[in-house]
Write a structure and sequence with these properties.
This protein is mainly α and about 180 residues long. The chain has helices spanning about 35-70, 80-110, 115-140, 140-145, 150-160, 165-175, and strands at about 70, 75. A hairpin with a 2-residue loop joins strand 1 (about 70) and strand 2. It is elongated, with a radius of gyration of 20 Å.
């Protein structure tokens, strides 16, 4: 399968037709795969949130370098208020992403069943990552669209809101756990 973004973890289709598994080779209980998978989702969602936080950092670094080097109207573009406000927004989203991710990781380390918190962390982190990538692309303009890491980071940020449970599904999880 040819994904839009990351090439480090390629997607595949796997089919098992008429497969027979000896009883002593089962992992867990018969027909208990979904329950076993669900136990791993808290960790997966936290790791996706951490990857999104790292993506925010890289995007900001690349956009800052560009804004320091690129000149317009006899000054660096980073000196324009419209650009500097984008950087302020990017930094706030990055910090929020890190805070919610660290908090959730601390809960998991303490042994908590942090279903709501991991869902929140993943949604906040991946949506912030995508917004930061969008702002980074806007700052760099055509240069970000056609060259270097920015266009790759933008494409990869989009996957975050899909993998490990879409943002919409996770909103359902959060609302359900609130009793709504």
């Amino acid at each position: 399968m040819d994904p839009l973004g990351s090439r480090s973890t390629l997607l595949n289709k796997v089919f098992f037709d008429d497969a027979r598994i000896p009883g002593n080779r089962f992992l867990g209980q018969l027909n208990g795969g979904w329950h076993g998978l669900m136990r791993g989702l808290n960790l997966e969602r936290t790791l996706i949130a951490a990857a999104a936080a790292g993506g925010c950092i890289k995007i900001i670094e690349d956009a800052q370098k560009f804004a320091q080097d690129r000149r317009g109207f006899s000054k660096r573009i980073g000196e324009f208020q419209a650009i500097s406000h984008k950087f302020a927004d990017m930094r706030m989203m990055m910090e929020t992403t890190w805070l919610v991710t660290y908090h959730t990781a601390d809960m998991l380390d303490a042994g908590a069943n942090a279903v709501t918190e991991t869902a929140i962390a993943k949604v906040v982190a991946t949506e912030n990552n995508f917004k930061v990538a969008d702002l980074g692309m806007q700052i760099m303009g055509a240069a970000g669209y056609v060259q270097g890491d920015m266009q790759r980071l933008f494409r990869e940020a989009r996957m975050g809101m899909i993998g490990g449970g879409t943002s919409e599904i996770l909103r359902n999880v959060i609302a359900n756990r609130m009793g709504v």
